[in-house]
């Protein structure tokens, strides 16, 4: 019947078939599939959808807000990603991380983590994939620098990825400036920066759900730095993060 919404039988057909009786509420279908009955409110589209579409489209086509109760419930029951689920090449396995690295470079890791968190706060529309892509590009540039001495910036897919890499690079620059100011010399090596970036990559891939619109890693970062970074991110402000 012209003008009828797909998936909803006209009222008169429902009456004839005995599906509805006078006074019964008109059935409403899912706002996504328009076939199954809606059963839950989706804050991503501000409409009501069916549980199946919620499960299938969550963080895939739906940009789910972190306070969605169905997203939170799914994460609580979601199994951690297994090694077989990950793209091993994305973890840069050729870069070794000694057991002592975290202990010896705790403040570098904290500074890089803070930089990612700051960028995610500044751009609320970022997803885990954006942070990981920007970090990967910078890590590969440092790998080339360490192995061959050539400084070559890895091409990036979008301005968002460039801004993520720039935030991390700025943190490295200010880390070295803080070392110079507080110790009178700089000891941070490019190889250490590479390992720090690879550590972030591996942590990020382990934390994200892997879905296109996942923000699980970002929310993990927000939990590490619960207060939104204030000020303009000056060297003095950041030095309190990266140095003891």
Describe this protein's structure.
With 244 residues, the chain is mainly alpha-helical. The protein has 2 domains: 23-77, 2-Layer Sandwich (Herpes Virus-1), CATH 3.30.40; 90-242, no CATH class. Helices cover 51% and strands 2% of the residues. The protein contains 10 helices and 2 strands; from the N terminus they run αββααααααααα. It has helices spanning 11-16, 51-57, 69-77, 101-104, 106-122, 128-148, 159-183, 190-207, 216-224, 235-242, and strands at residues 40-42, 47-49. A two-stranded antiparallel ribbon has the order 1-2. Helix 5 (106-122) packs across helix 7, helix 6 (128-148) crosses helix 7 and helix 6 (128-148) packs antiparallel against helix 8. The radius of gyration is 24 Å and the shape is elongated. The model is unreliable at 1-20 (pLDDT under 50).
Number of DSSP E strands: 2
Radius of gyration: 24 Å
Label the overall shape. Answer: elongated
Helical fraction equals 40-55%
Q: Structurally, how many domains make up the residues? A: 2
Largest sheet: 2 strands, antiparallel
Average pLDDT confidence is 83
Q: Could you give the order of strands across the largest sheet? A: 1-2
- What is the number of helices? 10
Poorly predicted tracts of residues: 1-20
Approximate strand percentage: under 5%
**What is the H-and-E element order?**
HEEHHHHHHHHH
First and last CA, distance: 72 Å
User: In terms of structural class, how would the helical and strand content be classed?
Assistant: mainly alpha
